[in-house]
Amino acid sequence: MTTPQPEPTAADRLYALLPEVYRLRDAERGGVLREFVEVLATQLAVLEEDLEQLYDDQFIETCAPWVAPYIGDLIGYRPLHGVADKVRSPRAEVAHTMAYRRRKGTAAVVEQLARDVTGWPARAVEFFERLVTTQYMNHTRLHARATPTMRDQEALSWGTLMNGAFDDLAHTADVRAIAPRPSRRAGRYGIPNVGIFLWRTVAVRLDRTPLTPHAPGDGRRFRIDTLGSDARLFGAPRTEEEITHLAEPEDVPLPLTRRRLAARLDASYGSERDLLLSKGVRNATGAWEFTPVRAADITVCDLSDLPDGSGAWAHEPAAGKVAVDPELGRVFFGTAVPGTTKPVATHHYGLAVPLAARGSARGEAATPLPLPHRKVADGEAQQAVLDGLAGGGTLRITDSDRYEDLRTVRTTTAAAGGSDTVVWVRAEDGVRPTLAVPGGLRLAMAPRTTVVLDGLLVTGGPVVLEEQGDGGNRTVELNDCTLVPGQSRTEAGQPAHPERASLLILDPFATVRLNRCVLGPIVAVEGADITLTDCVVDASAPKAVAFCGRPEPADGGPHTVPDEAAQATGDGAVPGGRLHLRECTVIGGIHADVLDASNSLLVAVRAPGDVREAAVWARRRQEGCLRFSYVPEDSRTGRRYRCRPDPADPPGTRRADRPHFTSLRFGDPAYAQLGTATPDTVRRGADDESEMGATHLLFTPRRESDLLLRLDEYLRFGLEAGFFYAT
């Protein structure tokens, strides 16, 4: 068997072009000429790559990002002002400009324009087509029904289709003017009105997440949510291939309903579709092998609790069948699943704010990961592998399974003169592993070491860094992580222990950085430095404590966490360390040594009998600055700049600045999302006229303004347009 020869390099090809006499002479003189040819080949490769890029720059589909506006200028494309790169690229809009102009004024163009400008799925509705009118008999419109069919449950389903984007029923005229921005007082069904419905919630796919038993040992009743709560499933939108196609329910991310899933089970159930249930068993090598549940064995029904209070579920399936409730996220097996079998689900869930451990693609880390790399999957043991990386390395989790053996992340100090030790625990891009840590995840860190947690969902206990007592610096970094508020959730989705902290930093020399995380309360002793960027800190209620310190131990020893009672935030009377907030939403009170905030929402109130001097309280007010943030009126902080409410405003008008949220229940698709009733002083109150709080990264006001600018160019004369948020 011949060994395949390696492909010749560019330097080899260039060197072979030289006359043989020069090559022989060069070999006698040490290969100086060949070294020159290798340098020349490197520069030729750069030139070749540049020529290829110049060719690609001739086309909008393949050009570099900076070239797109120049190509657009050739066809009269007007760039939008002030749009951040992270929102969208003008590439799609430039590519569709000619198609826009050929079909100018049509609903299809308005819909595609809204999708390209905002980046959200859209549906354009000509409301004048939905009016109750007496039709001309020579030109009847059979689709414009004056009265609905009462047997059409899908058309009458409230909240999904009726009065929404796909409502084809006839309505009486609405004399109110349509508002350009979402408003409760906006008119809809009028003669000049065109509505644009936008879906801000995306459907995120999770592959093979383990089902959570309803109770320990229950092999029949399961929940799809890995936290064991009822959670609604979503349908994955299909991709529209033609600009002339108006969006249909299958083209947008809609919640799955029982009737809709049952009627379209063949199209919705499968490996590359909305839902798939499988059963896994270990093979001879110890790896899991999964067998899908057949669609013929699936029944869609209501699995709500029976009203008799027994805790039983309705509609028990027959033996061999599997009942699914997409509105509650429940699965009921007719035949009990053996303990050696692992039931899993591939499904989609709704997400409006791209934060925390989410399973969607978040891109590879910009910082190079330390070597060595070790991978784990299928729920295999992590602790032993992680202990072997204590001197520096990366543990990479490659699936969305549940891991229950990880308890401690250890680090050891590097040798003298070496770089600081870094240990990563990272989820692969596109997966969301769940770490169940009933006793908490302990960080046993040596001085001058760093621990990075990336893309993990931690439930059952807090992440804890205990006091070491050696005065060494330690750095903890969390990226795209979820430390479940309340540590775990009940079946109804409520926090199981709202008084307990999700993050305890008990070493006064620690530096902690959190980016795009969702977590419960934080306890950090004085001296610790905590920086949060694009995060949500949820104490479950504005009256609770979201950030504070911890009293000194009675025996004068180091800070430790011996039991669950020590994880409570208490009354917040002791100040925490230095707290820096950047585009964050904090639900609950703050008592910090030094407080610094920018573009953030601090939503807190003081309950009667509260021992704190204020809901938001900084002990050292000569340091720190709050800028472009919402801060409660009675707060005691450092100097403020352009914050709301403004102390100069009349007392009766300050309450009008309060933010309104679509939902503050962790696990809801619209969790931490600002509602449309929020005043513009908050929705456009950041330093770049975007939203305050964690939703700042969405740049929602900018997308709205850009859409209004484009509608002036492409909307038909005499019509008025407004847009509505379907989610």
UniProtKB/TrEMBL annotation:
The lineage of its organism: Bacteria, Bacillati, Actinomycetota, Actinomycetes, Kitasatosporales. This is Phage tail protein. It comes from the Bacteria. It comes from Streptomyces nymphaeiformis.
